[in-house]
Amino acid sequence: MRFLHTADWHIGKKLHGYNLLEDQLHAFNQIIQLAKKEAVDGIIIAGDLYDRSVPSVDAVEVFNQMIIELNLEEKLPVFAISGNHDSSIRLETGGPWFKQSDFYLHTRLEQAFQPIEVGDTQLFLLPYFEPIAARLYFENDEIRTIEKAMEFVTAEIKKNFKSGMAHVLVSHFFAAGSAKSDSETKLTVGGLDTVPLDLLRDFDYVALGHLHNKDALISDQIRYSGSPLKFSLSERKQEKGVWIVDISEQSCQLEFHRIQPLREIKELQGTFQELAKQEFYESIDRKDFMFIQLTDRSVIPNMMYQLRKVYPNILGVERVYGRENDQKGLTKDVNMKQLSPLELSRQFFEEMTEEELTSQQEQWLNESLDSVQQKERGK
C-alpha cells in the first residue's frame, strides 16, 4: 500500500489574530496535487482536523470543501481520527455513512479494534483518548496512565493482526523521546502524557499526529508528519510537509515532500530607520508574517502604526537591548507613591506599548480619572 501521511491541519487556527484559512487551503492544494502525482492508495490524517472543539462556520466550510475534493471528486480513500483539539462527538456525526465513500473517521476508542483492510495492509485508527476511556472499556481500575492504557489497547489490536499483511497504526499522542514546540497543547489531562516506543514496535508503521515537527521523533517506522503550516514563532525553522509511505509486510519506505507556505514566518532585526527604508523593505516579501526586533533605545512615536504601514502582518515587536532594562531601573528608582494617577497611567502605557499617549488618549484618560475621583468623593 502507498499512502500519504499528514496530520494537525488545525483548520480555523489563527496566528496572533491573523486568519490562516487561505494559507491552509494553499497547503491543502499542494497535498492533493502530490497525492494524485504519487498515485497514493489513500490519505491518512492523524488527528487535529480542527483547531477548536467548536470550530467556526468558515472553518467547517473549508474542511468540508477539502474532504469533498479529496474523497468525492478525486475518489481518494481517507483514513482520519479525532485529535485532542477536535470534538469527537461533533466529528462523529455522519461517520456511519462516510465509509460508503471510503472516508473512515474514527472518534471512539473501540473503533480502533476494527481494522480497515486495503490490499495487503491493515489500518488501525486509534483516536485521541484519555485513560478513563480505556479504564471503562476494559473494566479495569488499574488503568490510570496512558502507558498502562496503551498496554491494553495495543494488546487488543494485535489480536486482530492477520499474518501476511502489513499493520499500520494511526494515532495522536506524545511518544516517549519526542520534542515539543510552543503551539502544541500538552496531553497531560487525566494523566495522559507519553507512550513508550516499545509498545509500538510490532506495527510496521505508526502514523502519528500531535507534534508539529516531523523531526520530533526519528524512527524507522514511527513518525510524526508534523503540521502542514507553521503555527508559532518557534516553528519558523521547521520544514513542513507530508510523508509518502510505501508499506508491505517486508518493508517500509518513507519519502518526505515539502509544502511551500503562502506566507513564511520571519524575524527582522534593526533600527526603526533601517527597517523603514524603502530599499530594505522592497528587498523582502512583506506579505510574510514578521517578528520584529528593534535595536533603538529611544521612544518612537506611533511605532506600531508606522511599522504596520510597511509590514502588514506583524506578529510582535520587542526591544533587543536597552529600553526594557532602562524602564525597569527607572521604575525601581522612583517612589511610586509620589506619582500622580495620570503619570502612573502614562508610564504604564509606555512600558506596555512602547508608545506615548496621544493628546486624545491623554484627554480620555484624564476624563476617566476625574470620573473615578468624583465617585470616590461621593461615597
TrEMBL record:
Q: Which residues form the Calcineurin-like phosphoesterase domain?
A: 1-213
CDD domains under this entry? MPP_Mre11_N (cd00840)
Source taxon at top rank: Bacteria
Region listing for Disordered, in residue ranges: 360-379
Q: Please note every region of biased composition (Polar residues).
A: 360-372
Offer an example of a GO molecular function term for this protein: exonuclease activity
Q: In what residue span(s) does the Nuclease SbcCD subunit D C-terminal domain sit?
A: 260-353
List the keywords (alphabetical): DNA recombination, DNA replication, Endonuclease, Exonuclease, Hydrolase, Nuclease
Q: What does this protein do?
A: SbcCD cleaves DNA hairpin structures. These structures can inhibit DNA replication and are intermediates in certain DNA recombination reactions. The complex acts as a 3'->5' double strand exonuclease that can open hairpins. It also has a 5' single-strand endonuclease activity.
Similarity-based family: Belongs to the SbcD family.
The UniProt subunit note reads as follows:
Heterodimer of SbcC and SbcD.
Return the protein name. Nuclease SbcCD subunit D
* Protein species of origin: Enterococcus larvae
